[in-house]
């Protein structure tokens, strides 16, 4: 597929998706969602890819949903159709069996912030700005802001950001646990690739099972989640990597994982 709103590259087990609507501050529109959905399908079936990086430009990760498109929504039915497609793509990112790292530089507002919330990890450049300002135009976040944000940073701080629509900088985002680390803007992709490379060297199936266990367990009560974790743990004892990893540990050598 010839992408118009994103750039895609891969190598050394890492896929990089870059939002590419610079004239619109990477505003999220229907075409971008379709292209994201397509590239996620490609990545999901590509065994060479073990980790994904999702990035924007230096000044804009994504400044929000495309208001010119949103402004055309006239009825609740239209809004439902629009959000159904948006949520489906964000859920695909969250449910992708491969870890996704958001490399955030510049503005990550509204839908752009929600897009980062669907990722597993977030690395912020020191110029990054986060916020859910939807309340200021008479709506609420509709792609996970009212649900993922409280689960990540806690309900009290999430309500403050949702009620006020205030923006926060990278250091505040780190302080409240929204991002994993803050780095100089010039080294953002280098740091994202460094983290992605470290993750990509882990045994592939165990990596997938780890994400499945965490995400699945978050939607269960503790007793059910512990039982689910146990089943995930048990499955890994059928893999060659489990046997190689433990054997290498005993023999005090570096394991040679084969993702099997």
Task: Kindly summarize this structure in a few lines.
It contains eleven helices and ten strands.
> What is the typical, i.e. mean, pLDDT?
95
Detail the poorly predicted runs. Answer: none
Computed CA radius of gyration, to the nearest angstrom: 19 Å
What is the highest CATH level, the class of the largest domain?
Alpha Beta
Pattern of helices and strands: EEHEEHHEEHEEHHEHEHHHH
Would you tell me the structural class of the helices and strands? alpha/beta
Strand content: 15-25%
Residues in helix, %? 40-55%
Any idea what the CATH superfamily of the largest domain is called?
A: 2-enoyl-CoA Hydratase, Chain A, domain 1
Tally of DSSP β-strands: 10
Integer count of domains: 2
- Number of helical runs? 11
Alpha-carbon distance between the termini? 30 Å
Largest β-sheet summary: 6 strands, mixed
CATH-defined architecture of the largest domain: Alpha-Beta Complex
| General shape | globular
Query: Per CATH, what is the topology of the largest domain?
Result: 2-enoyl-CoA Hydratase, Chain A, domain 1
Which strand order do you get reading across the main beta sheet? 1-2-3-5-7-10
Layout of secondary structure:
Blueprint: E1 6-11, E2 14-19, H1 30-44, E3 51-55, E4 60-62, H2 67-70, H3 76-95, E5 100-104, E6 107-109, H4 111-117, E7 121-125, E8 129-131, H5 148-153, H6 155-164, E9 167-169, H7 170-175, E10 181-183, H8 188-200, H9 204-217, H10 222-235, H11 240-250
Parallel strand pairs: 2-3, 3-5, 4-6, 5-7, 6-8, 7-10
Antiparallel strand pairs: 1-2, 8-9
């Amino acid at each position: 597929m010839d992408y118009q709103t994103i750039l895609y590259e891969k190598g050394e087990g890492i896929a990089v998706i870059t939002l590419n609507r610079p004239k619109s501050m990477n505003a999220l529109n229907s075409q971008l969602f379709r292209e994201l959905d397509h590239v996620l399908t490609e990545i999901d079936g590509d065994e060479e890819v073990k980790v994904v990086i999702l990035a924007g430009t230096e000044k804009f990760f994504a400044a929000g949903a495309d208001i010119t498109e949103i402004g055309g929504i006239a009825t609740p039915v239209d809004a439902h159709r629009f959000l159904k497609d948006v949520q489906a793509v964000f859920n695909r990112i969250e449910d992708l069996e491969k870890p996704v790292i958001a490399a955030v530089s510049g503005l990550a507002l509204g839908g752009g912030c929600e897009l980062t919330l669907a990722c597993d990890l977030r690395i912020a450049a020191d110029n990054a700005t986060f916020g859910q300002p939807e309340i200021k135009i008479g709506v609420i976040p509709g792609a996970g802001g009212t649900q993922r944000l409280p689960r990540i940073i806690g309900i009290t701080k999430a309500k403050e950001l949702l009620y006020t629509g205030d923006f926060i900088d990278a250091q505040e985002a780190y302080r409240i646990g929204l991002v994993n680390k803050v780095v100089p803007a010039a080294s953002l992709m280098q740091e994202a690739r460094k983290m992605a490379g470290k993750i990509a060297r882990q045994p592939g199936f165990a990596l997938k099972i780890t994400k499945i266990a965490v995400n699945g367990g978050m939607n269960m009560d503790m007793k059910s989640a512990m039982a689910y974790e146990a089943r995930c743990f048990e499955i890994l004892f059928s893999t060659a990597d489990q046997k190689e990893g433990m054997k290498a540990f005993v023999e005090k050598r570096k394991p040679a994982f084969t993702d099997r």
